[in-house]
Specification:
Radius of gyration: 17 Å
Order of helices and strands: EHEHEEHHHHHHHH
Bound molecules: glutathione
Shape: globular
CATH topology of the largest domain: Glutathione S-transferase Yfyf (Class Pi), Chain A, domain 2
Amino acid sequence: MIKLYSFGPGFGVVDPSPFVLKVDAYMRIASIEYEYFPDVGNLKKSPKGKLPFIVDGETMVADSEFIISYLQEKFQIKLDSNLSDEQKSISYLMGKSLDENLYWCLVYSRWAKDDTWIHVKKAFFGKMPFPLNFVVPPIARIGVISALQKQGLGRHTDEEIKTITQLTFKSLSEVLGKKTYFFGESPCTFDATAFGFLSQFISVSLNNQFNDLAREYGNLVDYCNNIKDKYY
Ligand SMILES: N[C@@H](CCC(=O)N[C@@H](CS)C(=O)NCC(=O)O)C(=O)O
């Protein structure tokens, strides 16, 4: 059976990582059986130093995109068979927008903003023994803020980052419209990505301005709730 290595539940969702949640949702939607190995220590075992990764017998696959391609091939998953080539290409690019752009907005909202950092600190480092619980969180935070600077998003003002985030939600809401899923009435691969990311803003137990921006879109809220009810 496929083994999924993740962080474990946080902020009221199955995993506080959108990439882990994407793979988790994909396997549920595609009815792939898997075992769940939640532990922040998995980061040390990961071939790319990031989560998620999966193990399937002798095969280890890291990175949500490569994991999904592997699963699609291995189990002959046909979730995208109803999509035209154009829709497949658009959904790939939309997925990359969430992976590579919205992700950093999420990171900023959690790690850089003081209002949410206190919750992140408690959730991720709360069980650490003294004195590590004093030393590690600020060092980790500096590391993430430096990554935001190097990536570039961290160089924008707070207002600019909120604008980018809001435009992403607005665009997703427009594309979804009144449909049940992004490309019709049955879920495709992109829905796993969209659910993985949108849940991190909509379904979590956090209440910051970024959560508010997402929750303004009723169809995105319903979308997350529908998938949660159906597959979780
Ligand atoms: N491209 C990777 C990104 C995975 C990723 O960035 N995971 C984050 C959690 S959301 C992580 O493991 N961060 C730990 C670290 O960078 O030390 C994927 O699609 O799986």
